[in-house]
């Protein structure tokens, strides 16, 4: 008798302490759940073994990446339906405990469904291996960046589109093209930095060179871009040569902590500071402050999360840490602003682009899904699945105000207090 799905559904509801809003389809062909709802497809018993050996988010992630667990139907709808269980109940003290006899019985039933369990299934090869030693050393940061960015520039072209900008776009309307919205974001940053011909710009975490090219071509500045990714640097240098901008733009494979050729008139840091980490953030801010001339501006574009009471200030997501951005840490906006000020900066403007990032991520997911077979060939089926899940889940996290993204404009204000900003700074002129 094919009965795995109803048994799994009953077990999930006991363990989660709430009704399951999606259907379950199991490897034996059985199905159970609300009619018309999207379905979680448990392809094999190995998915259960992964969850048993690593309960919680990481076990689910391993099952997803390996293809043992899948979604049938709209991925966004499924994640949205599950989000209350995944997010809102994460810290719920009323959740079932293993001290509850009924919960222990449910776990025993899950062990029976999982079949003979001798050893834990090996993690998918896309998972970062066990790491020891201190966080955010130069060597460890270089390895973390390589894991995420050195997977093939052709794959990033497929996802990001021609702009090759890997941070949220700036949408005039939802109907704008991704390329126009990314151009508008780069132009917004240039205006906030008040870039003028002949000025020196340091672009920290320069990616594939899009900001450097835009600033040099449209504003006549001289740019130094630094990245830890050799693949990014090679791609950026070719683009710069094709644009005829080699006399204005230099791309270095270099840690921001090793930049010593200041002062610069302006610094852009776009989607890079999430990699810096709690232990290094004050040093990061202090280093950038020292690299700016008096009156110079910093534009720090960074993802942040909502603060949680009685928490240290930074958070690490198990799935993201294991498969996407190793050692990445998100801090609340207030923590970021405080550390920039502690380093000496005067923070002059903060602009939230939360909804803009949700829209950008949905466009990236559309690009990925439109070329799904090719994407899997470019990297691996598992890595393509990582990207699809993390971008779709992140879009919902932005939409639900779980995380946000902020442009913080800060100035190395001279001792006499002349910031150089106009009285009505939002005009950005």
From TrEMBL:
InterPro entries, sorted: CFA/CMAS, CMAS, MeTfrase_dom, SAM-dependent_MTases_sf
Domain Polyketide synthase-like methyltransferase: start-end pairs: 155-414
Methyltransferase is among the record's keywords: yes
One MF annotation (Gene Ontology) recorded for this entry: methyltransferase activity
Record keywords: Lipid metabolism, Methyltransferase, S-adenosyl-L-methionine, Transferase
Keyword Transferase found: yes
Biological-process GO terms, alphabetical: lipid biosynthetic process; methylation
PANTHER family linked: CYCLOPROPANE-FATTY-ACYL-PHOSPHOLIPID SYNTHASE (PTHR43667)
The family this protein is said to belong to: Belongs to the CFA/CMAS family.
Name of the protein this chain belongs to: Methyltransferase domain-containing protein
Species whose genome carries this gene: Streptomyces boluensis
């Amino acid at each position: 008798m094919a009965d795995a799905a109803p048994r799994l559904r009953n077990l999930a509801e006991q363990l989660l302490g709430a009704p399951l809003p999606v259907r379950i389809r199991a490897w034996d062909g059985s199905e159970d759940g609300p009619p018309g709802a999207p379905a979680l497809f448990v392809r094999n018993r190995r998915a259960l073994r992964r969850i048993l050996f690593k309960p919680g988010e990481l076990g689910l992630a391993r099952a997803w990446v390996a293809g043992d667990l899948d979604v049938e139907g709209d991925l966004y709808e499924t994640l949205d339906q599950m989000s209350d269980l995944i997010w809102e109940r994460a810290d719920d003290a009323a959740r079932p405990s293993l001290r509850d006899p009924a919960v222990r019985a449910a776990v025993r039933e899950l062990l029976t469904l999982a079949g003979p369990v001798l050893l834990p299934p090996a993690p998918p090869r896309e998972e970062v291996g066990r790491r020891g030693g201190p966080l955010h050393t130069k060597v460890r940061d270089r390895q973390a960046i390589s894991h995420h960015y050195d997977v093939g520039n052709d794959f990033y072209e497929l996802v990001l589109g021609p702009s090759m900008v890997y941070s949220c776009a700036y949408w005039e309307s939802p109907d704008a093209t991704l390329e126009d919205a990314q151009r508008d974001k780069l132009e917004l940053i240039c205006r906030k930095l008040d870039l003028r011909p002949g000025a020196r710009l340091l672009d920290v975490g320069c990616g594939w060179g899009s900001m450097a090219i835009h600033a040099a071509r449209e504003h006549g500045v001289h740019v130094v871009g630094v990245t830890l990714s050799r693949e990014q640097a090679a791609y950026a240098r070719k683009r710069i040569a094709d644009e005829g901008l080699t006399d204005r733009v230099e791309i270095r494979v270099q840690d921001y902590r090793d930049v010593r050729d200041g002062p610069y008139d302006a610094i852009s840091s776009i989607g890079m500071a999430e990699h810096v980490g709690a232990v290094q953030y004050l040093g990061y801010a202090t280093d950038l402050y020292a690299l700016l001339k008096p009156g110079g501006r910093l534009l720090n574009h960074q993802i942040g999360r909502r603060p949680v009471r009685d928490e240290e200030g930074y958070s690490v997501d198990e799935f993201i840490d294991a498969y996407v951005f190793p050692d990445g840490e998100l801090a609340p906006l207030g923590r970021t602003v405080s550390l920039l000020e502690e380093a000496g900066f005067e923070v002059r403007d903060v602009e939230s682009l939360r909804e803009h990032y949700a829209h950008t991520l949905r466009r990236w997911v559309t690009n990925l899904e439109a070329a799904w077979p090719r994407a899997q060939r470019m990297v691996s089926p598992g890595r393509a699945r990582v990207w699809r899940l993390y971008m779709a889940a992140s879009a919902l996290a932005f939409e639900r105000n779980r995380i946000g993204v902020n442009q913080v404009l800060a100035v190395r204000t001279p001792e006499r207090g002349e910031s150089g900003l106009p009285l009505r700074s939002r005009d950005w002129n």
